[in-house]
Structure formats: structure tokens, C-alpha cells
Amino acid sequence: MRTRNVFAPGMRLLVFLALAVSLHGCGALPGSGDLEDEVVLTDQSVDKSQLLSLINTYRRQNSLPALKHDPVLDDVSQKMARHIAERDSMDTWQHSSFGLSQRLSKANYANYAGAENLGAGYADLPAAFRGWQGSEGHNKNLLNPHVTRVGVARTNRNTGKWRNFWVLTLARPTSDGRPAVR
Predict the structure, then answer these.
(1) What contacts 82, CB < 8 A, 6 or more positions away?
(2) pLDDT tens digits along 61-89
(3) What span, in angstroms and rounded, lies between the C-alpha atoms of 11 and 44?
(4) Could you give the 3-state DSSP secondary structure of residue 1?
């Protein structure tokens, strides 16, 4: 039994295109629909020895004592890196003195001093560090004479404007004693 094609050659193309558009809209075609728009965050490891080398060399050049790495500050940094990566923005109330204080308290991190640098878009730690050095407020944090510890984190985002989000948290835990008054 033979079937007869009821569509003229030009109509076949229109029917095909209409079908393709409708399937694309419902996510039935590969590479279409919500999966492409799904935000995927990936926490990245950061070389702590490279961090300590960068920051302590810089602090030594400015007659400041070296900082020690603190894994608790890594955790605080990682939570903030994920927070800003989720939003694809560093504009958040959590990036404030009050926000940092709350996050350190939540981590049971009693401290006398704390500071935080955020960065976005930098491909690696040296680039993020140079960015912080080139920013007056961030540079002030790098050279804060009252802090004794440092932690860092990076979260990548698969979509959006920035893709790489960095957070550096500096603090002086109460166990390190009160800072000297200058």
C-alpha cells in the first residue's frame, strides 16, 4: 500500500520547522531546555602554600609579620564564594563588617579583627592577588597589621558574567592575643 504525500514541497519545510520549534520549546531536543540554563557551582582547590608565599612575601616587603593558614577561614571563605557565585555578583549585604562578623561567629571563630577580600573573573590565584593589590581597600586588608591568619576559597560557575569567584578572609583569633594598639 502506498501513501500519498498531502504536503507540497514548501509546506513540508514549514511543518518541519514548526515541529522543531515546538519540540525545542518543550525541551525535547538535545541541547535545549532547562539543562543549559542550570547553574552549576564547583568549589575549586586553592594552593595554600602559593597563597602564603604571595601574601607573606608582600607583607614582609611592607615590614609586616607573616600570616598563618587557617582551615576555618578557608571554610568561611568557601561559603562566601558559593554565596556570591550563586548570585553571579559580589553585591551582597554579607560583604560588610556586620556580615563577616556574623559568618565568623557562626563558625565559632572568636576574633579581635577580621577583613575580607572578594574577587570575580580572575583565572588563577596570582591574578586575584594582583587585583587585590591594585584596589585601595583590598590592599589595606592584605596589609592589615592586626590580622594573624588567612584563608582562601574559589568557586566556579558554569554560566554568567564572572565564572570564577574568590574570597580571602583574614582574621586574628582570640587565641593569638589582643592586637597591639598603634
Answers:
(1) 41, 43, 155
(2) 999 999 999 999 999 999 999 999 998 86
(3) 52
(4) coil
